[in-house]
Amino acid sequence: MTVTQPARPAPVAPGRVPFPTVDEVSLHCTDPVEPETVHIEIHFPGRFEPERLRTALAEAGRRHPRFLQRKAGSRWWHRRYRWQLTADADVDPVTFLAAGPGVLEAARERTMTDCPPLDAAPPVRIEAVETEDGGTVLMTTVNHTAMDGPSCLRVLATAAEVYAGGAPQSAPPSGGTAPGGTGGAGTRTAAAKPPPPPPPEPSAGARSGPTRPARIAGDTSSSASSGAPGTGNGMLLLDLPAPRRTSYGATVNDQLLVATCLTAARWNRAHGARSGPVRITMPVDNRARESAEMLIGNGTRLTEVGFGPEERADAEALTGGEAPDRAAVERLLRATMARTHTLKSESRHPLGLSGVLLTAPVLPVGVRGALARTLRRAAAPLMSTTLLSNLGRIVYPLDFGAAGRPTAVWFSAPSRMPRGLAITAASTAGRLHLTIRYSRALLDHAAAVRIGELMQQGLAACAEAAEDAEDAGHTGHAGAAG
Predict the structure, then answer these.
(1) Percent above pLDDT 70 for the chain
(2) What class, spelled out in words, does domain 2-187+196-481 have in CATH?
(3) What is the pLDDT of residue 10?
(4) How much is the pTM?
C-alpha cells in the first residue's frame, strides 16, 4: 500500500493566518525556564549529503507552506496574533555536527533548552549529528507554539521523498496496525485473530470529575546532594519490545495508559504521597497522516483519562506487591478500553470550550494573555497527573537513500510544572521507543530511571503470558540527557 503520496507544490497564500486556539494559549503561557519544545530524534545507519538534505528540506517546506511560517509583529492591543507565511526560509534550519565525545548528548540537551524563535521561518532546528559508527542522528527541535511532532515528521517524510529521488515511498508491512497517534504503537502479525469484541460499556464513574488528581511525588535527592541546579527539563530514552494487542482487544495505547497509571500510583505509594485519582492527559490526533494535505500545525485535541473510583477495590493488588497482580491489571485494561473508546469518538475543540472563549478576538491579546496565565495558575491543582502521548507506529518509511531508513525514532513533549512528567511513545522496526521527559524541579535523573523501570514493569504486567517469554531480557536504556 502506498502510504506517502508525493506532495504537490502549493502557492503561498497572501496575507496572514490567524493563530488557532492552541497556538495562542501556548504563546500566552510560554515559560523560558521550561521552553515549549518538541524533541524528535531519528537514528539512521548512514551519512547524509549536507547540500542535498538542505535542498530536500527547502522543497518540502514549499510543498507544506505552513512549515515556512513566522509570527507577524503585534502589539498588546491587537485582537489577534497572526502567522506570516513565507516563500523561503529566513534561516538555514540544518546544521551538521561531526562525531565526537558528548556531541550527541549536547545536541539532545539543546532540544530542551534552546527553543527556535518564532520570528524566523521555519521555527524548527535540525542538527545532523554524525556518530562514531558511521551513522547519523537527525536531532530536531520544534517550537511547540508553531507545530507539533506529527506535523514536523510529515514534512521530514516529504523531504525524504525529495532526497531519495521524488518517488512515492511505501511503508513496510504493518500487519494491520493502526497508524493513528493513539491507536496503538505495536506491530501485529498478519496471521490474524478474529476481530476483538466490542469494549464494555463505560461505567458511570469512568469520566473524571473535578476531584483534585494525584500529583507525581518529587524526588531530587541525588541532584540535591551534588548541588546540581533543578531547572529545565531532562529526559530518559528507552528502547523496548513493541507490545501487542491482547486477545481480548486491549490496544497498545490502552496498555500504555494502564502502565502509566500503575507507574504513577506505585511511585507515589513508595514515596508516601497523598493518594488521589490518577488522571492522564492523552492527545488524540485524527488527521490523515498519509495524506499530502495533512494539516501542518498543532492538530491534536487533549482528552483526559481518569482512574479512580473503579480501581479502589484493586488498589492493594495493583500497587501493594513487588509487581502488579495480573488479574487486577486485566480488569483495569478492560475498563480502560471502554474509556478510550468513548473519548476517541467524541468531537470537541482542541482545548475545550474554555479555550475557545479565552482566545475569542473580543479583548486585546495582551489582556487575553494575562487572563490565560492567571487561569493556568488557578487551575494548577486540578491539572492532570501526567501526560501520555502515543504517536503509534511511524507510518512513513523515511527512506533517505544512502543514509538509509530509521533504526529508532524518539519524540518528547514538554513537561512543565506542576505536572512535571510527560511520557511519549512511538514504534518503528518492531520496537517501542519510549521517552520519559521530566521537570528537574520535580525529579532528577536517578528518579527518572526508577520511573522508567516502573513503566517497563507495568507494560510487562499488561502483556499476556505467551508474550512474556518472547520479550524477556530485551529491555534496556538507549540513552539519556540528564
Answers:
(1) 80
(2) alpha beta
(3) 43
(4) 0.85
